Amino acid sequence: MPPVSSRPGGCWGRPDLPAPVGRRTALGLIGGTLAAARAAGTSIALPPLELTASRLSQGGWARGIARGGLVLDLDGMPVPTDSSGRFLIAFDRDAPATARLHGKAANGWETALPLAIAPRAWQIEQIDAPLRPPSLPNEEFLRIRKDELARIAAARALVTGAQGWAQAMIRPAPGRISGRFGAQRVYRGEPGSYHTGLDLAAASGTPILCPADGVVILAAAAPFTLEGKLLMVDHGMGLSSAFLHCSAHRVGLGEAVCQGQAIAEVGMTGRATGPHLHWGLRWREARLDPLLFLPDEG
Ligand SMILES: [Zn+2]
After folding, report:
1. Ligand 1 center from residue 15 Cα (angstroms)
2. CATH architecture label of 47-116
3. Which of 97, 139, 183, 243 could form a disulfide with 231, with the two C-beta atoms 3.0–4.6 Å apart?
């Protein structure tokens, strides 16, 4: 696993000064003093709390490091750190414009990073027709669907210790982007549900490559009603991928998988009008834009 990216230049020798203006204004000590940093047990050369890489926008993410044993929360929600203090946070498609990452040391010293989350211009399509009420699903469908959703929820509750969350991701399939994350149709002012993943149009049987290291947390042998042959991979720290509509899986439940490994094949099982990979990414309950995890494309 690559180390957390090193910081260019040694500009943190005076942590009692505000963070330098420019590219790194979001980083560093906010409201801290040298004495406080010392009291928190942190090195005077390094900020107690900083982001090391980020895409601070709706559907985006940030990685960082907390030093001196800081206990973190994001707007009050606990954020775990690994043994080196590294962490991941991410922002839902509809995340508000600001967030606050807060750290507290054992001795009560506190620091915080206010985060500005850039809004996105989601692709919105106005439809001059009423939102069609769904045809009444029959009891059999409801029973099956309830079971499928329970299996997805159970998979997402698994904690695997996977380390892929710290990697830059790779594209899981070639092909044209046939559906963007967040796209939404609005029917005479009434919004329909938005698209929860990235669609990549590729031929049936095209290998799906794992975008980052992980552990398989669900491999549906029988197709789910909507997702089809669904494969889910946990990347650790609350981050997980879902691969929908597969024609086949090449890995099984509990298997550790590596970035670049062929884990499944593109198909059109479940509700799909043509062969494609729908790749969904979530951090806890937040739905994320997979494109923002691809350094070459996002
Ligand atoms: Zn899709």
Report:
1. 46
2. Sandwich (2.60)
3. 243
